[in-house]
Amino acid sequence: MTTPASAGPVTIVAQTRVREGASEAFSHWQSRMNAAAAAFPGFLGQTSMPPAPPAQADWVILERFSDLDAATAWLRSGERLGLIETAQPLLLGAVDVHLVRDSASGVLPGPVSVVISTRVKPGQEDAYRLWERRIAAAQTRFPGFQGYRFEPPITGVQDDWLSILRFDTEEHLQAWLDSPIRLKLVQESDAFTEDFHTRVVRTGFDQWFKQGGGAEAGPPVWKQNMIVLSMLYPIVFLFGLYVQTPWLVNAAGLPFWLALFIGNVVSVLLLNLLVPWASGLLGWWLNPSGERKAQSATAGAALIIAIYGLCMLIFSRLA
What we know:
By secondary structure, the protein is of the alpha+beta class.
């Protein structure tokens, strides 16, 4: 019988910094780790996010499992520990690993978030909880704040207290991190904390894709990229053919670099409207469930590839 503590999906949030010049080797290593996790019992999905300087200097990997027991078994498995050992020469410091129970309220990383892990002095847990309420209230008043999640330790699995803050932009997040009120509160916490680590997380196209109930993991990056390309290609072609070349360049006499910039601005604005619409229509493919996963993955990819081909056929006759 599943205990309440282990009920519901769990996401493993792993963050690590790679040595300069070792990014390609680490990427290959991460592919091996992804394949091993995908074959492990209870695995539901994963997302790997490479560094996005200057805000995010770390690799961030999200691995989602059916429950706490499955996630813990993977973390302690000989296969995973062996892979972690082979990666040590590529890394700067240890891998930070935290578990987030998806049934809890709050947010997972994205669009830009900070993951803070704190080690509390023994016997000071009540003082830390009171302090956490104060800093939580303060951060909600800052511009761009979008959500907050607070996770206590998991006995026998995770000793640190974990908090995840979500902001709409890097600038707003940094404004909170550098604010005098936060720095004062952090200084006050020295009395009951031993150590804490702060790492920034940024995702790619996640802001364009609606996620399932609660903390469901977002769709795989390759699916997101395929949809973005299916919208971007016709926008760029049609705008270039009917607006950029005849009107901006020929009629208005704008230099190519300026006309191209205007075209990029228009493309991004249209993508923000079209990609959510397309992701809604293709929700059965982006976030499949149950036995339909394998079939929908093939059918959805084939449909997008067919759209690519149709666009190229039509545009070859217009050009």
